[in-house]
Specification:
heterodimer; A: 232 residues; mainly alpha; two-stranded antiparallel ribbon; B: 306 residues; two-stranded antiparallel sheet; 8 helices; elongated
């Protein structure tokens, strides 16, 4: 006897049983669906920092900033790289004139290390920007601030180095106010804190004992801008 | 094939098909009734317990907003001012460090005010007092260890340097977490000044330690090789030609850690390390030990809803 024949007869068929169980399951799931829908009826606030989502009363919704540099960011970070390469070139020139300048033993290692730091900054920016990195020193910055590196006395070199480092700090600080991507912002932040240290150390090496900052807020007034110092 | 159902002599509602149908119906009805019922009378709200227990503290939301980060940064400035007051009260630091600390305190208040203003600008209540978690877990233990130190003056100077370094790292670290670019700039206008102050303090503490040997080895290997021939008693290399032994070199416990005016190529987010404590103790809570001070994190952030 074919047992399947039984299933096709009457209300007690397997098909009907499965239909009944499915209906029962759907009915029992209704309250949960309703509860979930209720939980989502408030606004959802996505926080930029944590990326977490939580149900909150406020209706505001903020969008997380991009991690990678945007197209505008790339231009700004490219400019930052050109400034770093101009600084590295300046220290290169000083090291090339080491004998002429008779670099003191406390200054010589500092100049060499600072050159490497600026090269490292430029390389890090290259890593972030890839093919869009300009990879060239900013000629306008070199012309404006780098003269003493080529021909100045030791005192003039140190003064120019302080000015260049201060300008780099101000520039990166100003760029932070424009960058959208967090990767670029984090990199510039890590660079500028060390360049602030560079400037303070160079000030000390130039014989100035008045090292404490005058203000608790770093000025960005001396910031170099891509408009004034275009990358070529 | 034999139809075995023919052999079963049972009521129709108790056969296998009927049984399954009945149980399916029961499950569905139970689920509907359970979902529609109220919790009233379901049981006691709390579990009965003996004795008294403190009320449970309500956990913060855990949502890190721009306001949370700014409030935390602000609070750290009050911790730093607290440390300066404590150190200056001890009267053990050099006149040069004392003057720098006094000047730093003025800068700290300016910075705290600027950060509070930035917090207000985004419609969040600023947090203008010291961070209680940092105070309890970092500052107070550090000051307790400083109190029992045999080299209080040197340790106090290093503690001030550690505070400035911690502030630098904190500001740098929160930059990528801030959603608004203008706030990132504001925060680093403060962070850069902390970095400068850390360099000033490092120069007073160790004028010979301008750059690290690792950085020098990369930039000028020959100069680095010459520098390694000069070592201080801690066993750590120094770039100084005539570096003096550190004050705690002969004492028990870990050696003092060198401080550098330019400690690395990029700003570090690693914990700030400092050695504090009683060098005569070989065990116990006050023995000389290395503290790893971390920047404020999830458990020490000043949340908006706190």
């Amino acid at each position: 006897m074919d047992t399947t024949a039984l299933g096709e007869n009457g209300p007690a068929s397997r098909r009907r049983f499965l239909q009944a169980v499915g209906l029962g399951g759907a009915i029992s799931a209704l309250p949960f669906v309703a509860r979930s829908a209720g939980a989502q009826s408030g606004s959802s606030t996505t926080e930029a920092a944590s990326g977490s989502t939580a149900s909150t009363t406020p209706a505001t919704t903020t969008t997380a900033p991009p991690q990678r540099p945007t197209a505008d960011d790339e231009a700004l970070l490219g400019f930052a790289q050109s400034v770093e390469l101009a600084a590295a070139a300046g220290y290169d020139a000083v090291i090339g004139r080491a004998d002429e300048l008779a670099l003191p033993p406390d200054v010589s290692p500092v100049v060499q290390v600072l050159r490497e730091h600026h090269k490292a900054y430029a390389q890090s920016l290259s890593g972030l920007l890839g093919r869009s990195a300009p990879g060239t020193a900013n000629a306008a910055v070199s012309d404006e601030l780098g003269g003493p590196f080529q021909t100045g006395s030791l005192d003039e070199v140190l003064a120019a180095a302080v000015a260049l480092e201060d300008a780099a700090v101000a520039t990166h600080t100003a760029l932070l106010g424009e960058l959208q991507g967090t990767d670029g912002a984090a990199l510039l932040a890590s660079i500028l804190v060390t360049e602030a240290r560079h400037a303070t150390l160079l000030t000390a090496l130039s014989g100035n004992d008045d090292l404490m900052p005058e203000s608790g807020i770093e000025s960005a007034a001396a910031a170099l801008t891509p408009d004034d110092y275009p990358v070529e | 094939m034999v139809d075995r159902t023919d052999d079963i002599d049972a009521p129709s509602f108790l056969d296998r098909r009927g049984f399954l149908r009945l149980s399916g119906f029961t499950v569905a009805v139970t689920a509907v009734l359970a979902a529609c019922g109220s919790d009233e009378g379901a049981g006691p709200e709390g579990i009965t317990e003996a004795g008294s227990a403190p009320p449970l503290a309500e956990a913060p939301s855990g949502i890190i907003t721009d306001g949370t980060l700014l409030r935390t940064a602000t609070s750290l400035h009050y911790n730093a001012m607290d440390v300066i007051d404590a150190v200056l009260d001890l009267g053990v630091v050099s006149a040069e460090i004392s003057a720098a600390a006094e000047a730093y305190k003025v800068l700290l208040q300016d910075q705290a005010d600027a950060l509070a203003e930035a917090t207000t600008s985004i419609d969040v209540q600023p947090f203008e007092e010291k961070n209680p978690v940092v105070d309890t877990r970092v500052i107070k233990p550090a000051l307790a260890l400083l109190d029992v130190s045999q080299t209080t003056g040197a340790d106090a100077e290093r503690l001030l340097h550690a505070v400035a370094s911690l502030a630098t790292a904190t500001h740098q670290g929160i930059v990528p977490s801030l959603s608004r670019p203008e706030l990132r700039a504001t925060v680093m206008q403060v962070g850069a000044v902390h970095a400068r102050v850390a360099t000033v303090l490092a120069r007073i503490i160790s004028p010979e330690n301008t750059v690290t040997l690792e950085d020098l080895a990369t930039a000028a290997p020959e100069a680095a090789a010459a520098a390694t021939s000069t070592t201080v008693e801690t066993g750590l290399p120094s770039t100084a030609p005539d570096a003096a032994p550190t004050t705690a070199a002969a004492a028990a416990g870990p050696a003092d850690l060198p401080v550098y005016q330019v400690p690395s190529a990029f700003g570090s987010l690693a914990p700030v390390q400092i050695v504090l404590g009683d060098a005569t103790k070989v065990d116990g809570p006050t023995k000389r030990t290395q503290l790893n001070i971390e920047t404020p994190s999830l458990n020490s952030l000043m949340y908006d809803d706190a």
